[in-house]
Write a structure and sequence with these properties.
single chain; binds NADPH dihydro-nicotinamide-adenine-dinucleotide phosphate; alpha/beta; globular
């Protein structure tokens, strides 16, 4: 078995080394999950709920430890990392309410009784990216386990530490061996095997659109269920009648949070032309005040980028672009990048069209509501977005017209575990979280029982 060095992106130093499983190791993990499935499926609903609640409680007891791991491994600010560990606990508690409520229907038929069951699928494969290692893992495993599936989970090679620890905490909480298997390794080895192995009945993937398309194509071969959460290029639309001061004060966090490595980042700012100059004048001090610091500091609002390679990619979007202004970032070791605001001159500009996945905001003016909607929709993506206006009618019209899976009016709401999350167009397929996600980890079985003797 080979190993991978895990790097601290704030310093560039090696933190530790973890195993990188090969094909045989991956198959062995899938086999353990396959063997664990029948017994886990048959755990009484109330007992499965209790085990998930106990898992949530153990996560809660280790909140600071998990948050600390994420600060060191992913460069997340300590404030964000605490929220993320708390989110794992909350998602587990939320779906712990599901086993006793996973009821089917009784449908009227002649000559008997017709009932439906939501059957678990079997082994579910979850492929997690490096940008939000803890929440994205839990958004997959919590509903999957609640519905009676077992799980194999591949963390990103760059950020495996919290997933590995969550796997240990699951065992500590009494979740049986094999029910939640953490399988560290490369995407092209471990992740790809989830797609090709016949015992894995569903793949949940979060990551780049290109890899997501390949996974969807691969899953077609076995008609394997798939949920995809892919890229985004979300718009933040500011109308002239909005509370401009509030919109400007909140715009930086909506795109620079997690150093912009967020599929929901509002990375395209559309400002009504009549207030364009006024808005940029309000935005500049807010960007310059955004605190990019060592993520262990409680005051840090943004940490480093995830890797040297990723910093080079992000830089390539800024080279040759029209820079309006930037914030500050620490110098020295680590993959630091300052918050950067670019003026777009056409919708063809590369930084306007492509997902940068870094702290880079592109700005463009618009003339009227129709143009705002047209520009917001002029992208292959449709994940998130925000709009700012005091006109209720316009807020509703634009909310319905923008082709995106989640939208906030006069705010930049983050993901709530009890509401659905997912993308339209090429941002994804299916929805995570909320009341409906559970059913995507089941298949409906219809049973007719004859009453004729
Ligand atoms: P990837 O899509 O390559 O990686 C996401 C996950 O998929 C990782 O766990 C990765 O494993 C795994 N993976 C990679 N290739 C395969 C494969 N062929 N089969 C199965 N699994 C695979 O994203 P990157 O990390 O390369 O990031 C590139 C860009 O993608 C970012 O700059 C950003 O634009 C976008 N992205 C979007 C995310 C989102 O939240 N929607 C999240 C992450 C990235 P491993 O890396 O360990 O090899």
């Amino acid at each position: 078995m080979t190993t991978t060095d895990v790097i601290n992106p704030s310093t560039g130093a090696v933190l530790t080394t973890v195993p990188s499983l090969d094909l045989a190791g991956t198959d062995a993990a899938i086999e353990r999950a396959r063997k664990a499935f029948p017994a886990w499926r048959d755990v009484a609903p109330g007992d499965r709920a209790r085990l998930l609640r106990r898992f949530a409680a153990v996560v809660d007891e280790h909140l600071d430890e998990l948050a600390g791991l994420e600060v060191r491994n992913a460069g997340h600010t300590i404030g964000n990392a605490r929220w993320e560990a708390g989110n794992v606990r909350d998602v587990l508690n939320y779906y712990a309410g599901a086993p006793e409520r996973l009821s089917g229907r009784q449908i009227p038929v002649a000559g008997g009784l017709d009932v439906t069951f939501h059957e678990p699928l079997g082994v579910v494969g979850i492929i997690v990216p490096w940008n939000f290692p803890m929440p994205i893992a839990a958004w997959g495993f919590a509903p999957a386990l609640a519905a009676g599936n077992t799980v194999v989970l591949k963390p990103a090679e760059l950020t495996p530490l919290t997933a590995i620890r969550l796997g240990e905490l699951a065992l500590e909480a009494g979740i049986p061996e094999g029910v939640l298997e953490i399988v560290p390794g490369r995407g092209t080895v471990v992740g790809q095997r989830f797609v090709t192995h016949p015992a894995v009945r569903k793949v949940c993937f979060t990551g780049s659109t290109g890899v997501g398309k390949a996974i969807m194509a691969g899953c077609a071969d076995q008609v394997k269920r798939v949920t995809l959460e892919l890229g985004g290029k979300s718009a933040n639309i500011v109308f002239a009648d909005a509370d401009l001061a509030k919109a400007a004060a909140s715009a930086p966090a909506s795109v620079f949070d997690n150093a912009g490595q967020d599929c929901c980042a509002r990375s395209r700012l559309l400002v009504e032309a009549s207030v364009y100059d006024e808005f940029l004048a309000l935005l500049e001090p807010a960007v310059k005040a955004f605190r990019v610091q060592d993520p262990v500091n409680d005051t840090a609002e943004m940490g480093p980028l995830i890797s040297a390679g990723h910093r080079a990619t992000v830089s390539s979007y800024v080279e040759g672009a029209d820079v309006a202004f930037t914030g500050e970032a620490p110098a020295g070791d680590g993959w630091w990048f300052p918050p950067t605001v670019l003026l777009a001159h056409s919708t063809g500009d590369r930084h306007w069209r492509e997902e940068v996945f870094g702290p880079v905001l592109s700005v463009l003016p618009f003339r009227d509501e129709a143009e705002a909607v047209r520009l917001a929709n002029d992208t292959e993506y449709g994940l998130s977005g925000s709009l700012w206006t005091r006109d209720l009618g316009r807020a509703l019209r634009v909310s319905r017209a923008v082709e995106t899976g989640a939208l906030s009016v006069n705010s930049h709401s983050s993901v709530r575990y009890w509401t659905p999350f997912g993308g339209m167009k090429q941002s994804g397929l299916g929805r995570e979280l909320g009341p409906d996600a559970l059913l995507s980890f089941t298949d409906v079985k219809n049973v007719f029982i004859s009453t004729d003797s």
